[in-house]
Amino acid sequence: MDFHGRDEYIKNFKELLLDKRAKLVTCQGRRRIGKSTFIRQCASFTTHYITISGLAPQPELGKQDQLENFSIALSQQLSSPKIPLLDWPTAFHYLSSLIPKTGSTLILLDEISWMSKGDPNFAGYLKNAWDEHFKNHPRLILVLCGSVSSWIDENILNSTGFVGRVSWQFRIDPLPLHHCNAFWKDYEKKKKRTIPEIEKLRILSITGGVPRYLEEINHGQSAEQNIARLCFHPGSLLFREFDQIFHDIFMRKAPTYGKIVRTLVDGPRTLKEIGQALGRDSGGTLSKALYELAGAGFLTEDRSFSPVSAKPLQRTARFRLSDNYLRFYLKYVEPKKLQIEKGIYQLSPLTSLEAWHTIIGLQFENLVYNSRHELLSLLGLDSTTIMNYSPFFQNATQRKKACQIDLLIRTKSALYIVETKVREKIDASVIDEVREKIIRLKVPKSLAVRSALVYQGELEPSLKDSDYFDHLITFKQLLNY
After folding, report:
1. What is the pLDDT of residue 2?
2. Long-range contacts: 390-393, Cβ < 8 Å, 24+?
3. For FRET with 332, which of 134, 326, 379, 407 sits at 20 to 30 Å CA-CA?
């Protein structure tokens, strides 16, 4: 299995190993994003590696099943006797007794929210085990990992019992574009030819930067052939994926949470707008659901900020469907589910799909946002203090007109207006669009305003000749950063 990127995380992990004291670490992120793969990569720098994963939720599974699985995993990996484990204090103590006395050890407790099922005191037992056993092992790194980020937040990171105990908490995000591009590089080198950027964009508009999905690319097929194979066959990975990951993560809440993400397919919405679309109150339960969906890596909460002060603006939060796979599935696969299951659906070219140009624009924005560090470098801002960075929304008032900016970047001395475009041909009308947005922002003269166009397509000569944009950044530049 190929491993690409995550260099900064690996650097941080190696620094943890330099300290001989035991370390407690949490790792969160979307399912299929490569959390376990990353931890396994980190294990190559340690002497010993032990991994135990919770069993996926099933109605008949309970605490004893999880404990039985725990015992089996230890006996298989450490050649230890398989003993009956009646409770979690015993299980954790037994694990501690098996930790090798020499060298460094990495222990991964994966899908820990599943492991905890059936025992409301699980986190408390784990805290006691850390204090009494695990922290006494020099050069031990204990990683708590899971796709249900809300469980880790509530039971570990925001728990008074674990205050001061977690040495490092990190989230695995989708790969930025240049690391996604690595999945094509070996093939291109072998064949001595480059796959067109638009082909890669069409694939990435469905997979996003999710490594598990990128591994399924057949480089000898076109984007349409890959997408047809992965999404529009009854047994294909991405046809079954939505129901599976939502059930595994959210269980009984899956149908309700599915309805929430469907409201965001055509663009970001406020909490109030989501509530109205669902016909339900926008109070605590809906807010909690959005929080859990964001923690699971499917949504992002964007908050506008003052272009002048760079401080977040009140009541401006919008929720964006930041997972490209989910949007494509809900927009184009789910409505054809019955025909696909019967084997009678024939995929038309992507460009003929309903509202494709709008959808690929939203997918492109997500890809650019996930490559923000590379974008900042291409803008010459990699060594500049960034005061804020976000999509920007300005509601209409008596004094201001509505304004929406794909990406607004505030440095100490300037504002960067970043427009993203995906079109076969991009004409000079985009200049008028950006000019109008700058007018509506009402930026004081003391603050410099610079514009950037991040695009895929061909620029018409009039746009090139205008020299309007301070920065023209191609999709290709982000891919090959």
Report:
1. 65
2. 390/302, 390/303, 390/304, 390/305, 391/268, 391/302, 391/304, 391/318, 391/320, 391/365, 392/304, 392/305, 392/307, 393/268, 393/302, 393/304, 393/316, 393/318
3. 407
